């Protein structure tokens, strides 16, 4: 049944529906593959029985002539940021070790309702803070990719959804959930040669998702191709009254309306994204990507997003500020880790718990966030960053008068070696330079694999669209996918 693990979401769903194979056979095949891939450290918790139980329910429904959901028979990986009833959820942090939520996140509940099963919880950067999946309290995720120089350097799968990207790329699951705060779906997708989409802010409920930066966090799917992402996003999205930021908008049939014909579409190329010292191979691929979209019928135009250069510094003020506020709840009182030194008072318990439970990167961002929110600095930093955010959104609004979708690189480099940037947080943060602006503006954006660099590693291109216009973004992504013909995959070395 090994060949079943080569199938994506659409192929599995359709195969289960027409009786080519059973959902249980699919679940068993993926369970077996997950079990053999522990070297990647992509899964924190495996739940083979949950995958089997969901599959049995689908097979029973089919046998009884029942209606099958859009994800029927598809076993998926769940990023460990999503609370799952009765299954340990840690956000890859020691402070939540042993936490078993008594409830289900809205996104995961929607996916189970659509017929999906859960293979397990996926590793990630601690509290989603990181661009390389090296901040997890439970060890690094290792990319399934290797450079073509014959070496065996462990590469980053990207972050924070590095467990998700590694698992999909390694064929451990046909699809996985991710979250994107400043690029954490798109950058790991680019690093591992898969597709991911961050929908419009508010499309997918944040209820039951461990919070990092509440005004930026957005869940989305990561899968092998654009069609699979469209199917899965349709199952994940929808209005949720339990989330005050959820959009009360109908969920379109994105997969049903997919088209690679871009006649009449204008594609914007932001001149500010051509940054100094940009990787020549990525620049070349970007130019080639524009030609591919022209071939699909689109008109390519140059646009300006003048405040782009301020997006990253503004993001690293806004996001840590919200993080410092959100993470104040982890105090050793109600749930999670409690470090109570002998004779300690309440304040000392707080300090000991947080010192022991949070990793270095999380502590760094809490300290930055606390600083920019403190008296005397709030106006100088947080207020200014909020104003810059408004200007970034305005840039995009003005750009929509000239184009329908924007094409840009996803990341400034291909995957780098684990440990290469850990001593240089600033360079690590710069990995999000192309992804952050769309996050600050709450816009839908995809990353699509478009080629390999000279080292044989995947490179991704990003498509950014208007608010609530996921369809155009997906259509342009499909056109790019069709003309890129990306079929490379990592060899099994694990």
Number of helices: 15
CATH architecture: Alpha-Beta Complex
- What proportion strand? 5-15%
**Spatial strand order of the main sheet:** 4-6-5-10-11-9-7-8
List the uncertain runs: none
Protein structure class: alpha/beta
CATH 4th-level superfamily: Amidase signature (AS) domain
CATH level 1 class label? Alpha Beta
Mean pLDDT across residues: 95
Overall 3D shape: globular
The helix/strand series, from N terminus to C terminus, equals HHEHEHEHEHEEHEHEHHHHEHHEEH
Number of strands: 11
Largest sheet: 8 strands, mixed
The figure for the number of domains is 1
CATH fold naming: Amidase signature (AS) enzymes
Helix coverage percent: 25-40%
**Gap from first CA to last CA:** 19 Å
What is the CA-atom radius of gyration, in angstroms?
Answer: 21 Å
């Amino acid at each position: 049944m090994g060949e079943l693990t080569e199938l994506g979401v659409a192929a599995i769903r359709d195969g289960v529906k027409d009786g080519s194979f059973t959902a249980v056979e699919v679940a068993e095949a993926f369970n077996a593959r997950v079990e053999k891939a522990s070297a990647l450290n992509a899964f924190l918790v495996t739940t083979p029985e949950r995958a089997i139980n969901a599959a049995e329910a689908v097979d029973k429904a089919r046998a009884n002539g029942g209606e099958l959901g859009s994800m029927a028979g598809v076993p998926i990986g769940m990023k460990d940021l999503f609370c799952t009833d009765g299954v340990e959820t840690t956000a890859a942090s020691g402070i939540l070790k042993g936490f078993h939520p008594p409830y289900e996140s809205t996104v995961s509940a929607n996916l189970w309702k659509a017929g999906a099963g859960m293979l397990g919880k996926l590793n990630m950067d601690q509290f989603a803070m990181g661009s390389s999946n090296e901040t997890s309290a439970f060890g690094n995720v290792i990319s399934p990719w290797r450079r073509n120089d014959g070496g065996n350097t462990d590469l980053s799968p990207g972050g924070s959804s590095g467990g998700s990207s590694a698992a999909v790329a390694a064929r451990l699951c046909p699809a996985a959930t991710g979250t994107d705060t400043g690029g954490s779906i798109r950058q790991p997708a680019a690093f591992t040669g898969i597709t991911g989409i961050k929908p419009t802010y508010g499309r997918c409920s944040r209820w039951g998702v461990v919070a990092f930066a509440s005004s930026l966090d957005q869940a989305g799917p990561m899968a092998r191709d654009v069609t699979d992402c469209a199917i899965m996003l349709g199952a994940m999205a929808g209005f949720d009254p339990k989330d005050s930021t959820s959009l009360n908008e109908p969920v379109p049939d994105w997969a049903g309306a997919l088209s690679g014909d871009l006649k009449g579409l204008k594609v914007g190329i932001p001149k500010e994204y051509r940054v100094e010292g940009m990787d020549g191979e990525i620049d070349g691929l970007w130019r080639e990507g524009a030609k591919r979209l022209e071939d699909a019928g689109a008109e390519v135009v140059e646009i300006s997003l003048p405040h782009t250069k301020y997006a990253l510094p503004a993001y690293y003020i806004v996001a840590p500020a919200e993080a410092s506020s959100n993470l104040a709840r982890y105090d050793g009182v109600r749930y999670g880790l409690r470090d109570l030194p002998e004779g300690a008072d309440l304040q000392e318990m707080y300090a000991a718990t947080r010192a022991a439970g949070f990793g270095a990167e999380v502590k760094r961002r809490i300290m930055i966030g606390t600083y920019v929110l403190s008296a005397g600095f709030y106006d100088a930093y947080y207020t200014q960053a909020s104003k810059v955010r408004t200007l970034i959104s305005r840039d995009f609004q003005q750009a929509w008068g000239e184009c329908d979708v924007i094409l840009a690189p996803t990341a400034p480099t291909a995957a780098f070696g684990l440990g290469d940037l850990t001593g240089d947080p600033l360079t690590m943060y710069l990995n999000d330079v192309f992804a952050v602006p769309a996050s600050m503006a709450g816009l839908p954006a995809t990353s699509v694999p478009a080629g390999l660099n000279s080292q044989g590693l995947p490179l991704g291109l990003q498509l950014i669209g208007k608010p609530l216009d996921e369809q155009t973004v997906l259509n342009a992504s499909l056109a790019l996918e069709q003309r890129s013909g990306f079929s490379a995959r990592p060899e099994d070395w694990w």
